[in-house]
Every structure is written in structure tokens, then in C-alpha cells.
Design brief:
The complex is a heterodimer of chains A (about 160) and B (about 425). With about 160 residues, chain A is an alpha+beta fold. Chain A has a single domain, classed as Roll (Nuclear Transport Factor 2, Chain: A), CATH 3.10.450. Helices cover about 25% and strands about 45% of the residues of chain A. Chain A has helices spanning about 5-25, 25-30, 60-70, 115-120; strands spanning about 35-45, 50-60, 80-90, 100-110, 125-140, 140-150. In chain A, strands 2-1-6-5-4-3 form a six-stranded mixed beta sheet. Chain A is globular and about 55 Å long. Chain A starts with a helix and ends in a 13-residue tail after the last strand. By secondary structure, chain B is an alpha+beta fold. Chain B has two domains: about 45-155, Rieske Iron-sulfur Protein (3-layer Sandwich); about 185-400, Naphthalene 1,2-dioxygenase Alpha Subunit, Chain A, domain 1 (Alpha-Beta Complex), CATH 3.90.380.10. Chain B has helices spanning about 5-10, 30-40, 135-140, 175-180, 185-190, 210-215, 225-230, 235-240, 325-340, 345-360, 390-400, 415-420; strands spanning about 20-25, 45-50, 60-65, 70-75, 80-85, 100, 115, 120-125, 130, 150-160, 160-165, 195-205, 240-245, 250, 280-285, 290-295, 300-310, 310-320, 370. Classes of the chains: A alpha+beta (about 160), B alpha+beta (about 425). The interface of A and B includes residues 48, 69, 75 and 113 of A. The structure holds FE2/S2 (inorganic) cluster and fe (ii) ion.
């Protein structure tokens, strides 16, 4: 395999790894996949107001403080499961950076959100959208420089405290 | 007291008085809900969108008010008008998109017209019918365009560019009269220059609309929010007052938020709204289901559309100034979303709490009392932020509109008052 192909495979792997770490609330492991200049944003276009919205954004430290604060917040702890498919990985000419587009659906399996006796265990689609990621390499390993979660879903109901 | 048996549980606890609690059935009973739609929501003024959402001539927004499909349109003359979004022919919905423009023609019709796609009747931006397909062939002289204009609705653009609509032609108040002074606290900030919506999302949650309004009205639930537990509790916070206005509206007055107490949240001092002191906060709980929340750099507006006794749609908007630079806009977005966004710190907690609250009050569940009995006064005897006067004020207005006593909805309002006096 060419070096470029190797890197593309490594990038797909790291996207899948990130989905697993996020599913499992392994926030530190997730952030360790991210470059120190990491930028994270959840965005959506609203046809209602005809506007490109940013629902949330922050750097690596901001994301760390959000995940560190989770135990202090009251949250819907229903697990989220990301079904991610990497569509494209494109290396830049220098082979030092890359962009990738993945499609995702986030399923929520109810636990404690409403009336657990009736609803716990029920799975529903919570969000759909695309991950638009940028990567650099550290010691040959791909690191997220940027993740833009581009949501199609705008009926967000209770929302979430978790990074998506 | 130890845990109570059924009889004890049924008794009014402590010295709580009539008027200091409501009956849980007002949150779950289908007949009461239908009555609210007809007696309140079909009768009052409500904001439906913001003028920046239809900024160009021929642009429109669609929505529903009390189950009726409504369309708000900006005419060639720049006037905003509201109509029922219902075709006078066979009742099709004329426009199905949430927003857009009539400038371009639709597949069934001409540019600069609203066209019902079904049989291509066409209307102008003032709601006049201007074309009936094969009209004279089918209706001869029995029905003409002049007979079938759209149903126009009373509409005002007021308080920072919000578009207000009522289904009630006979309403004897303007929006300003209906507001009864509730906007005095933020009117100057809202009207000093044009605003623009930068945030929109919606929630449809299994809860009665009043539970959301209650939560917006009571601040005692600071305990729910880590953010408030850290930033809120100080002298100036408790000095905030609950002020009731005519028609059930409530203000919660200003105080300085100590953002620096909360890790990850920089102070909001860098950017504010015109005429709003830095880091200050004003809130209007507007009867029956709207909330305006002006905090530092961003204005939040919640508009509730009740969908059933235990189902409500809440539309969340965030607004800044139309003149914002991209940098300023980004700051406002961050301030708004970090607390109030769908992935923000507080909104999720609020939405979580009202849905689990409703979960104990399903339809036909045993009735119980929901206490609104906190009286926490300042040195002048005015209700402070943890006083539950806001909810009591709302339910007083609600009871009068419904002619039901909130503490026992089987009683008329007058019967309830008599019982209270006794
Ligand atoms: S229903 Fe609208 S034209 Fe026939
Ligand atoms: Fe709250």
C-alpha cells in the first residue's frame, strides 16, 4: 500500500475510534485523539430563519471543561450510539493534513430521560448529520485538528450535554 | 413527619392556603386543554416569528396558532401581513415550506403570487384572490375573485421586530395594551436598533405548556442548574424582584451575573445589548406561553405551541443586533448557546426536569397538589427571586380566562375565590 493509502486507512480508523470513545464516555481517550489546537463545533443550517447556525463550539480546553463538568450537571443519561460511515478521506498534496467526511446517525436508548418504567430500553434516532473533520499527523498518527458536526436534525427536543 | 398514608397525603400540607397550589389535572386533562385552546390561545396576541426571518419583499414564514395554519408575508410595500394559510377553495394549505419567497413562480403559479398548488388559485401579498382557474367556465357569475380573498389576521410588528398575530378579530387591545407595561424593562434595548435572529431550534417534549412557563417563571429551581448554583447565589441575585403586570405577565428584574465564578464561562462584559448594563439580566414571562430573556449579549425568546395536554412544541430563538460584526455575532452566539443552546448547560436540565415532572401527571393519574406557596420578601416587602409570586400571578390570570379555579378546576373561578375567602 502507498503511504497515502496507509494514512487514509489510519484516518478512517481514528474516526471510528472516536465514535467508540464518545459512545463509551471515554472523554480523555477521545480528547487524546485531538491535536492541542483542536476546534469542535456543532452547526446546522436553519431554513426557518435562513441562517447558518453554530449550536456549540470550543477548543480542546473548552471541550475538556465541558466533559469534566458532566458529573456536576443533571443530564439525560440515556446512552447515545453513533453509527458512523466514513465517506471520503482526502489527503492534501504535502500529505501532512487531510479532510474527511463521514455520515452519522446517533441513536438514543432511553434510560432515565422520562418515565423509565415504560420507556427505558427503547431506541430512537436522535440526530443525523455529517462529520466534517480535518487531520494532522503527530509521530505518524492522525490527530483531529477540527471536527464540525453538521446536523440535519433541528428538532432537538431535550438536547444533550454530551459532545456528539 | 414520617411518610404519609393516603389520607394524610390527600390533606393540604402545613398551612399552605388556597391559591398557593394548583391541581395537577390542569396539566393533564384533555377537556381543560381544549378549553385553553378555545378560550385563551384563540383569543390573545402571540408573537409568531421575527421580522428578520422575512427580510425581503415577497418573503414569508408559516406557522400554526391554536391549530390554525398561519402565514406571515412581507408585501411589495414592505408591510408585514398575516393570513390563515388556508385556500378558500377546498381548504388546502397554500404554502407548505417553513420560509421562502413568492418572488419566483411556483410550479402551479405566477411569480409574486401565492399559489395554491392544488387547482392554482392565486393570491397577491395583500391576500386578494387575483386568479381562479377557469373561473367563469365553472362558476359563471356565481363566484368571483372578490368573493374569495384570504382570511386576514390582525398583525403587528412590535417590541424589537417580533411579528405578533391574533386569530381574534374582536380583540379590543393593541399588542402594547395587552402587554400592560411588561416590556418596559427591555423595550429601550429591543427598539434602539434592528435585531436579527441567529439561533433557531425546536423541541417537542412530552409536557404541558404551563410546566415550561412555570419553569421560566420560578427561579427557585436554581438548584437544578450547576451553572446557577455557582454563579447565582449572592445578595444582588436575591434582590431581584418578581413583578406582576395585567393579563398575567411577569418580569423578573435585573442583577449582575457572576460569570467568573463558573469555569469555562468568560464574563459577558465585552458585549452587551444597547441600554443594558453589562452582565445584567431581564426576563419577561408573557402570558400565556412566551418568554423573553435578555441576558448580557443575547436575547432569547421561547414561543410555545401547545400540541396536547402533555405535548408542547417550544421554538427557541436567539437574537443579536443586525449591525453585528462577524466577531460580535460569534460572541453573542457563544454566550447564548453555552447556556441556552440545545447542547448548552441549562436548557437540557430545564427540559429534562419538566418532562420528568409531567411523567407523574399523566392523563387520569390521581390528582395532586402542585405547590406554588413560597413567599420570600425583601426588606421593602417585595417578592424576591425565590418567591413563587410569578406562578401565582399567572394562575390568577389563567383562572379568570378559563373560569376555573386552578386549585380545583371543577370549581368556577368565583366559587374558588369564595372558598379561599372562607
Ligand atoms: S384547494 Fe386551493 S385551489 Fe383548490
Ligand atoms: Fe432553568
Amino acid at each position: 500500500m502507498s503511504e497515502s493509502m496507509n494514512k487514509q486507512v489510519a484516518i478512517s480508523n481514528v474516526i471510528y475510534k472516536a465514535s467508540l470513545f464518545l459512545d463509551e464516555h471515554r472523554w480523555d481517550d477521545w480528547l487524546n485523539l485531538c491535536h492541542e489546537d483542536f476546534y469542535y463545533a456543532i452547526k446546522a443550517f436553519s431554513p426557518e430563519i435562513n441562517y447558518d447556525m453554530i449550536y456549540m463550539d470550543g477548543n480542546r480546553e473548552d471541550m475538556r471543561s465541558i466533559t469534566d463538568m458532566l458529573p456536576k450537571h443533571n443530564s439525560d443519561n440515556s446512552p447515545l450510539a453513533r453509527h458512523t460511515v466514513v465517506y471520503t478521506v482526502e489527503m492534501d498534496e504535502s500529505q501532512d493534513t487531510a479532510t474527511a467526511v463521514s455520515s452519522f446517525a446517533v441513536y438514543k436508548t432511553e434510560l432515565d430521560g422520562i418515565n423509565s418504567h415504560a420507556l427505558a430500553g427503547e431506541s430512537n434516532i436522535f440526530l443525523v448529520g455529517k462529520y466534517r473533520d480535518k487531520f494532522g499527523f503527530e509521530n505518524g498518527e492522525p490527530r483531529f485538528i477540527e471536527r464540525v458536526v453538521q446536523l440535519d436534525t433541528r428538532r432537538l427536543d431535550k438536547g444533550s450535554h454530551f459532545p456528539i | 413527619m414520617p411518610a404519609r398514608n393516603a389520607k394524610q397525603w390527600d390533606k393540604i400540607p402545613g398551612k399552605i392556603e388556597s391559591g398557593e397550589y394548583v391541581d395537577s389535572r390542569i396539566y393533564s386533562d384533555r377537556n381543560i386543554f381544549e378549553e385553553e385552546i378555545s378560550k385563551i390561545f384563540k383569543k390573545v396576541w402571540t408573537p409568531v416569528c421575527h421580522e428578520s426571518e422575512l427580510s425581503e419583499p415577497y418573503s414569508f414564514r408559516t406557522m400554526t396558532v391554536a391549530r390554525e395554519p398561519v402565514m406571515v408575508v412581507r408585501g411589495a410595500d414592505n408591510q408585514i401581513r398575516a393570513f390563515l394559510n388556508v385556500c378558500p377553495h377546498r381548504g388546502n394549505m397554500i404554502e407548505n415550506r417553513p420560509s421562502g419567497s413568492f418572488e419566483q413562480g411556483s410550479p402551479s403559479g405566477a411569480p409574486k403570487h401565492m399559489t395554491c398548488m392544488f387547482h392554482a388559485w392565486q393570491f397577491d401579498m395583500k391576500g386578494n384572490c387575483v386568479h381562479i382557474s377557469r373561473g367563469s367556465e365553472g362558476y359563471q357569475d356565481r363566484l368571483a375573485c372578490s368573493d374569495v380573498g384570504l382570511r386576514r389576521l390582525r398583525c403587528e410588528v412590535k417590541y424589537g421586530g417580533f411579528v405578533w398575530v391574533t386569530l381574534n378579530d374582536a380583540i379590543d387591545q393593541t399588542v402594547e395594551e395587552w402587554a400592560g407595561g411588561a416590556f418596559d424593562c427591555m423595550e429601550k434595548s429591543l427598539n434602539s436598533e434592528p435585531l436579527e435572529v441567529f439561533h433557531y431550534h425546536k423541541a417537542i417534549i412530552p409536557c404541558n405548556y404551563k410546566l415550561w412557563h412555570d419553569t421560566n417563571s420560578e427561579f427557585y429551581h436554581d438548584y437544578l442548574h450547576y451553572h446557577n448554583r455557582i454563579t447565582g447565589f449572592n445578595d444582588s441575585y436575591f434582590a431581584r424582584k418578581n413583578i406582576g403586570f395585567d393579563n398575567g405577565h411577569v418580569n423578573v428584574g435585573s442583577f449582575e451575573v457572576q460569570y467568573d465564578q463558573y469555569e469555562g464561562f468568560e464574563s459577558r462584559e465585552e458585549l452587551s445589548f444597547p441600554h443594558l448594563p453589562n452582565n445584567h439580566w431581564e426576563m419577561i414571562d408573557f402570558f400565556p406561553g412566551v418568554n423573553f430573556n435578555l441576558r448580557g449579549s443575547a436575547l432569547r425568546c421561547d414561543i410555545m405551541t401547545p400540541l396536547g395536554p402533555d405535548k408542547v412544541m417550544i421554538e427557541f430563538r436567539g437574537l443579536g443586533l443586525k449591525s453585528d460584526t462577524p466577531e460580535e455575532r460569534l460572541i453573542r452566539q457563544r454566550h447564548h448557546n453555552s447556556i441556552w443552546g440545545p447542547f448548552g448547560r441549562n436548557l437540557h436540565e430545564d427540559l429534562l426536569a419538566v418532562t420528568t415532572q409531567q411523567a407523574t401527571m399523566s392523563e387520569f393519574a390521581d390528582k395532586r397538589r402542585i405547590l406554588h406557596g413560597r413567599h420570600e420578601l425583601d426588606a421593602d416587602g417585595d417578592p424576591t427571586i425565590h418567591d413563587e409570586e410569578g406562578m401565582r400571578h399567572f394562575y390568577d390570570a389563567w383562572g379568570r380566562w378559563m373560569d376555573r379555579w386552578p386549585g380545583d378546576p371543577e370549581l368556577s373561578f368565583e366559587e374558588g375565590q369564595k372558598r379561599e375567602a372562607a
